[in-house]
């Protein structure tokens, strides 16, 4: 699974930061092997079609947020985010806001997990509360001012031991408020795509689902 994530970045031709701290080290696969995986990875394959470009951007976004085709399609084509309901220029912001509102993403942004994939797993195992209620659905939409916290019974378990100390040097993004000692936090606002800086051409994804 670890190697599979590296192949996704190499195929995309850029870092997607799928493996936490390793992505910032010399061990990063795309630093050591900056070409597509496979026997013919270093060969020039010629320009891709517009559809191929759109598909590649879609797969990159799925990899970054650890979601599948069904989840992404639901986010992009949801009624209030469809082209007929939101100005085209704003659809990309709506997509990013929805993805950043997912419980697993909020857990990752709070610094409670080293990657989104780990956050997804921890949420699925029921390690978190939202407003005092235990939730195990990674796609749950966190609302502004909802309190996300580590379940008390989980605080002494492996993934959370010494977490408060590890968080001392962590600076959450501007749209997240973190209580480091309490192991809790909340979503202050819905971020824009510029704030998040997703390395994906979201217009290509909108075009993919508008066909």
Explain how this protein is built.
With 211 residues, the chain is α+β, with helices and mostly antiparallel strands. The protein has a domain at 102-187: Structural Genomics Hypothetical 15.5 Kd Protein In mrcA-pckA Intergenic Region, Chain A (Roll), CATH 3.10.290. It is built from ten helices and five strands, in the order αααααααβββαββαα. Strand 4 and strand 5 form a beta hairpin. Helix 1 (2-12) packs antiparallel against helix 3 (50-65).
How would you briefly describe this protein structure?
The chain has 211 residues and is of the alpha+beta class. Helices cover 40% and strands 9% of the residues. It has a domain at 102-187: RNA-binding S4 domain (Structural Genomics Hypothetical 15.5 Kd Protein In mrcA-pckA Intergenic Region, Chain A, Roll).
Oligomer: single chain
CATH superfamily of the domain at 102-187: RNA-binding S4 domain
CATH class bucket of the domain at 102-187: Alpha Beta
End-to-end span in angstroms?
A: 32 Å
State which percent range the strand residues make up: 5-15%
- What do the pLDDT scores average to? 82
Work out the number of β strands.
Answer: 5
Query: Which percent bin holds the helix content?
Result: 40-55%
Shape: globular
């Amino acid at each position: 699974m670890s190697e599979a994530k590296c192949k996704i970045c190499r195929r995309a031709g850029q870092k997607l930061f799928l493996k936490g701290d390793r992505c910032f080290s010399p061990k990063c696969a795309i630093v050591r092997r900056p070409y597509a995986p496979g026997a013919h990875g270093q060969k020039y394959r010629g320009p891709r079609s517009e559809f191929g470009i759109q598909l590649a951007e879609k797969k990159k976004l799925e990899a970054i947020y650890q979601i599948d085709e069904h989840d992404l399609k639901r986010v992009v084509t949801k009624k209030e985010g469809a082209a007929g309901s939101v100005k085209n220029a704003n659809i990309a912001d709506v997509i990013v806001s929805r993805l950043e509102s997912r419980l697993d993403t909020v857990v990752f942004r709070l610094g409670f997990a080293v990657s989104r994939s780990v956050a997804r797993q921890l949420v699925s195992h029921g390690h978190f509360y939202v407003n005092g209620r235990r939730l195990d659905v990674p796609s749950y939409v966190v609302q502004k001012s909802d309190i996300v916290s580590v379940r008390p019974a989980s605080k002494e378990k492996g993934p959370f031991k010494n977490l408060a100390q590890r968080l001392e040097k962590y600076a959450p993004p501007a749209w997240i408020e973190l209580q480091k000692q309490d192991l809790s936090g909340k979503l202050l606002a819905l971020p824009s795509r510029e704030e998040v800086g997703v390395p994906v051409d979201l217009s290509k994804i909108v075009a993919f689902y508008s066909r």
